Amino acid sequence: MHPPSSPPNLPLSQAVCNVGQDVTGHDSQTAFLRHRLLFTGFIHGDYNDVNILVDQTVTDRGSEVHMSGFIDFDDAYYGCTVFDIGIAVMYALQSKTVSRDRAVASFLKGYGRVRRLNQLEKSCLYYCTAARFAQSLVFGLVNYASSKDEYVLGTQVRGWEALQEMWDRGQTVTYQKWEFL
């Protein structure tokens, strides 16, 4: 696997600037006040498929997979829980087994059974997801340039395309696709 010289249909600088501009579009005082209203707690910080433990149960209806735990708490901290949800959604948008939107809809439905997001968290999730894409995509390219470690390119494979699709259709249409309104 080799990093793209320029991410498909979205130059690196444009992606970062677009996400950054929209995420920081409000003045800092407004952003700070909103941030303080978000639900906080202990978050994993790297909620992706390689850090999730699953159990598989075979029944007469087929095979069922259930999440049973997490590993790799190096990035864990106390923060806004919607940040962790954005991280999980970003990785779900790179699903290879079901459609991206279905993967996200399933995750959000399951999460919603345990805890419902408030309106402010719902309004932030799109931007948290986009920001995590920008972080992960840029981090991967920068680290690959210095280390040549192909592991850090994992998000590059489907990430640019997923970010571009999400960004092009906007928050309202994206939430409709995720069945999140």
Task: Briefly say what this structure is.
The chain has helices spanning 12-23, 28-37, 81-92, 100-114, 119-147, 156-177; strands at 40-43, 52-59, 62-70, 77-80. With 181 residues, it is α+β, with helices and mostly antiparallel strands.
Order of helices and strands: HHEEEEHHHH
The unreliable regions are 1-29
- The structural domain count equals 1
Number of strands: 4
Termini, distance in Å?
A: 37 Å
CATH class: Alpha Beta
Name of the CATH superfamily:
Aminoglycoside phosphotransferase (APH), C-terminal lobe
How many helices does DSSP assign?
A: 6
- The portion of residues forming beta strands comes to 5-15%
Order of strands across the widest beta sheet? 1-4
Radius of gyration: 17 Å
CATH topology group: Aminoglycoside 3'-phosphotransferase, Chain: A, domain 2
Backbone structural class: alpha+beta
The helix fraction, in percent, is 55-70%
CATH architecture heading: Alpha-Beta Complex
Q: What's the overall average pLDDT, rounded? A: 78
**Rough shape?**
globular
- Give a quick account of the main beta sheet: strands, pairing sense, barrel closure: 2 strands, antiparallel
Keywords: Cytoplasm, Kinase, Transferase
Subcellular location: Cytoplasm
Function: Catalyzes the GTP-dependent phosphorylation of 5-hydroxy-L-lysine.
Catalytic activity: (5R)-5-hydroxy-L-lysine + GTP = (5R)-5-phosphooxy-L-lysine + GDP + H(+)
Describe this structure in words.
With 181 residues, this protein is of the alpha+beta class. It has one domain: Aminoglycoside phosphotransferase (APH), C-terminal lobe (Aminoglycoside 3'-phosphotransferase, Chain: A, domain 2, Alpha-Beta Complex), CATH 3.90.1200. Helix content is 55%, strand content 14%. It has a two-stranded antiparallel ribbon. The protein has a two-stranded antiparallel sheet with strand order 2-3. The N terminus is likely disordered.
